[in-house]
User: What shape does this take?
Amino acid sequence: MRRALTVTALAGAAWLAKRAIGRRIDSGSPLWPLPALETPVSGYSPRRWISALIVSRTEPAEGVLSLTLESAELPEWAPGAHLDVQLPSGLVRQYSLCGDPADRGRLTIAVRLVEDGRGGSREAHAQLVEGAELPVRPPRNRFPLVPAPSYAFVAGGIGITPILPMLRAATAAGADWTLLYGGRSRASMPFLDELARYGDRVTVVPEDEAGLPDLSALGASLGPDTLVYCCGPAPLMAAVEAAAPVGVPVHLERFAPVAAGGDAKPFTVELHRSGRVVEVAATESALTAVRRELPNTPYSCEQGFCGTCQHRVLAGDIDHRDTLLTDGEREDSMLLCVSRAASDRLVLDL
Assistant: This one.
């Protein structure tokens, strides 16, 4: 009798466990005890790496490398999206997609060689060759093209890359648009051949021929329903913001670390496991300060995109300045490279 009762109890427990697991699977959540994810395990997680094949390598301008990637695992994307790329050294860099979203399974990026940069572009130019495998994350979009009857696009140098798919989409939608495209010289400005087919909608301003782009007429030429999209060097984007009339939306694409200073304040970080206390100045990132004490703390992009420097926060209020973490992750973790403290003190599980 006792054995029969035991068997019955175990069978009942197994049935309840099976039903609970079934409910979690049906809801798209990972199995207990992991929490539910914003992106189901069967979907395209922004953290998931995909192996893509470099099928083409070209140089559309001096110092610019264009790569075409193929993979059957690549999901759909929309104009304005960017791609996380893991370079052979392990560095993670972000590049805007400049191909055609309708070309499924194929992505195109362009990389400007920056000799005095942080090394990512030099590595890409030297080591990314046709036929090589390249780990990438699914495209993410923090610069989406909002539907509108008209647009004013402004691009500087390699900033033309996210604008190219927008021009195709705006043309297909029948919208009115213009593009002001500046660069150091024609030889350094990629995709001029592709832009030539748009005729007088595009104004090309090489600095060595005509100086800096004249934005004084930008405000006067904008209609009430016109949206402004700009990508390029920080001074150009600041000038576009200043030139746009009050009330006209200006959409900017920035691939640069969130600067300290301005509204940034100093704060204290306690490293719980190591028992150390670090002071973070207003002019530096928490990552920089932490690495003074723990130089092996991992990092990569330093821009809040890749997630390498994500760490658990045990106490304190976080000022999140990244574009990666989910709401659930923001409750108890932060990216040290860009996020800061909203309180005077943070306690990290480090």
Notes: The two ends are 55 Å apart (CA to CA). Confidence is low (pLDDT under 50) at residues 5-10, 20-44.
